[in-house]
Amino acid sequence: MTPPVTRTWSRRGTTPIVRVRGRSRRRLSVAALVCYKPGQRSRLIYRPCPDARPDGRKSFAWTDYRDLIQAAHHQLGGPIVLVWDNLNTHVTGGMRRYIAERDWLTVYQLPTYAPQLNPVEGIWSVLRRTTQANRAFTDPHDLITAIRQGLRRLQYRHDILDGCLIGTRLVPTPP
């Protein structure tokens, strides 16, 4: 809920001030996949997860990631090569069993502490600098709405998605 601070314009000698009333420990977890297929446009598939869940969990469980991968497989209509980081939820026993049971799913783990190889980190950076920058959210619903709108806008910005993918050097640079 605390807004990230970025650059802004104002009159010379006048510092712009964004007042934030109270600090909230509320948060929003978002899982995303940046998808690449030669000859087609890049795609962004995401799922938000607010911290107010019925089971009391404040982040994604391996079953949430499983559902996201299943939805991506359904939307993309083909086999998936998944490259992701070493988040503890990604390497649980349930997730490993799920991956082993799917012949259409191949998974490569990124090295530890390698955010420069993860294109989704670029998406989060763009989101912080655009949608969230210098904005004080009034309540958790306002935060969720803003993040969804920002991600929805990014879904149609294939140039930004391509830039995040090319920046990792995991996909070939277009001619």
Automatic annotation (TrEMBL):
InterPro entries xref list: RNaseH_sf (IPR036397), Tc1-like_DDE_dom (IPR038717)
Residue stretches making up the Tc1-like transposase DDE domain: 5-143
Gene3D superfamilies per the UniProt record, alphabetical: Ribonuclease H-like superfamily/Ribonuclease H (3.30.420.10)
The name this protein goes by in its record: Transposase
Source organism (scientific name): Sphaerisporangium corydalis
Biological classification of the source: Bacteria, Bacillati, Actinomycetota, Actinomycetes, Streptosporangiales
